Amino acid sequence: MNRKIAPLLRRPLGVILPLLLGLTAHSAFAADDWAPTATKAFVPTLLRAPASPGSSTARLQASLRSASSHAVKLASDDIRDIDVVVSLKPRDEAGLDQWLAQRLDQRPLPALGRDELIRRHAPSQAQVDAVVAHLKAAGFNRIQVAPNRLLIEASGRAGAVENAFHTGLNHFQYQGRDVITNTEDAEVPQALAGTVQAVLGLQTAVQAHTLHHVVKPAGSGARPDASGSTFSHQLTDFPGIYHAEGLPKGTDTTVAIITAYDLSDTLANLRHFAADHQLTVPTTQVIKTSTGNYANNGDATGEWSLDSQAIVAVSGGLKTLQFFNAQDLSDAALLKAYNAAVNDGSAKAVNVSLGLDEAVTHADGSQASEDAIFKLAAAQGQTFSISSGDEGVYEAEGGYIRAITDPASYTVSDPATSPWVLAVGGTEVATSGNTGYVGEITWNEGVDWFGRLWSTGGGISKYETAPAWQTRYLGNRLTTGQRVLPDFSFDASGASGAQVYVDGSYINVGGTSLAAPIFAGLWARLQTANRNNLGFAATELYPLASANPTVLHDVVSGNNGYNGYGYQAGPGWDYPTGWGSFDTAGIQSLLQQAAR
Predict the structure, then answer these.
(1) Are 381 and 527 in contact (CB under 8 A)?
(2) Which of these, 132, 289, 307, 579, has the minimum number of CB atoms within 10 Å of its CB?
(3) Amino acid 452: pLDDT
(4) Which SUPFAM superfamilies match (predicted)?
(5) Mean of the pLDDT values across residues 504-511?
(6) By three-state DSSP, how is residue 446 classified?
(7) Half-sphere exposure of residue 270, counting CA atoms within 13 Å on the CB side?
(8) Residue range 563-584: average pLDDT?
(9) Closest CA to 548 of 514, 594, 504
(10) 61: closest CA among 71, 50, 47?
């Protein structure tokens, strides 16, 4: 039987008859007239990926093969609900791209207001209504449309998924979780092809991971003895290290963090940390972006504690600290959290200390869906500050080294790959005393006892094209025309990292999960100093960095691979560290000059 016809014949009779007889708005959606979305069949995509024996990817593949060998296809009338998020394409995306590129030539950079963005670039109400009608006819319920109309949430059984998207679902146990994976590429009727970007929630097996690196206990808040110029720092040292102590505190600016799971311990840790360091806890808002119960997760608590404490310490204070809180780290849950931060629009910086091999996010459609959200954020003057990864050039391997000599085999982390975020890499910083800046090298701690490399992520995206602010200012460094990362880098080394209070004690933490919130805290100071009139950070900072290298801390030594492989740091922008870090007071002086 034709695979395009078979799913229609498995629909409930009440859905089939109107479709066949032309009695609903869906009469144009013929059974053989379906179009692809950005969401591909999950398990075949992952299992086809090349992997070295013994690598993280090879182990993941073996684990998935073993688990999926016991998979059971969900029957269309299975009682469990499948929660999906349908992401839609912005209208006139080419016009939005052009508008963003033009901001490079205008100072100060004006931002589009949220209502203006929706009027110009959100999917039309008619487009949304057509998708909603399709979901209802397929058997979905509890349908909700995001205020900016980019996301549509819905719940339904496996039969509804098959009716709406032409794919079945496999069900099995994996890594202690009950997971599903879609067996075929997700499709929609041809009439919706220009509207629907992707369908998230059809795979729950592989999720994003946090990007902090716990090195060793650091005592009860006391500084370890420094044997030289590289040692563990208090988070309150970083404004001095990056020359931001003379700027106003970020008390007029709102910053957000993308989080997941229960945040009770995170908020308690923040209060304890602030009391220890005589800091004022800003007004906090926890915005839950999913329904249902939020479980506790100890590893995640360490991550969000690092993010929140670093941002408060480096900014010196905030107007508001928002937590856009997903239920878990699945593609669908995180996409809703990203979009909620953009819909709200209050935060000038949104910190994301999470990542995943971009091959996975490209295949499940979340990469394309994120891009649409981040692009709207950039247009309304928000900056997503995103960790570039802690696995060096081995993101797909989870940092587990292999004998890679061909840069074409190196991999990078999503969502840092997006052209519409600021990707933040990692360095190791040396100081005189606690806060006197001496220099930085590429963060690369080598491999641990398990053969896992700890080093800054950076390299070339295989799927994302370079944005205008890179094509203009990086010149011949863009050898492929693809998005390259990171953009800037700050301290991430366990040797020079930070002491973070987590559940009763201070621990020494590094990773690009430290670097990203350092940037977010510095950006909050810069925004307050400029009355929150700064636009998207990349379009603000790339022109300044290119023309004024003296305000940069250029990182010229080190690499982000193993045994001499990976990318090498060098003068100017480079793959391991981007432009390096910066002298924040120097950046502020240039911003003031540009605004005159």
Answers:
(1) no
(2) 132
(3) 85
(4) Protease propeptides/inhibitors, Subtilisin-like
(5) 94
(6) strand
(7) 25
(8) 95
(9) 594
(10) 47
Cα 480 to chain centroid distance, Å, stands at: 23
Q: Which of 6-10, 16-20, 115-119, 367-371 has the highest mean pLDDT?
A: 367-371
Whether the pLDDT of residue 10 is over 50: the answer is no
Span 324-360, pLDDT tens digits: 999 999 999 999 999 999 999 999 999 999 999 998 8
Mean pLDDT rounded to a whole number for the chain: 87
- Helix, coil or strand: residue 436: strand
Instruction: Give the strand pairing for 320-326 and 283-288.
Output: parallel
Helix (H) or strand (E) holding 143: strand 141-145
Which residue segments constitute the domains of the chain, with CATH numbers given?
Answer: 6-200 (no CATH), 209-595 (3.40.50.200)
Cα–Cα dist 186/165, whole Å: 5
Q: Strand 209-210 and strand 354-357: pairing?
A: antiparallel
387 pLDDT above the threshold of 70: yes
**CA–CA gap between residue 228 and residue 219 (Å, rounded):** 19
Burial 490-504 (b: 16+ CB within 10 A, else e): bbbbbbbbbbbbbee
Q: Can you name the residues that pair with 442 across neighbouring β-strands?
A: 427
Residues 295 and 262 sit within 8 Å (Cβ to Cβ): yes
- The set of catalytic residues is 303, 307, 513
Q: Is 574 annotated as a binding residue?
A: yes
303, 269 Cβ separation under 8 angstroms: no
pLDDT tens for 122-143 read 999 999 999 999 999 999 999 9
Q: Determine if residue 554 is labeled as part of a ligand binding site.
A: yes
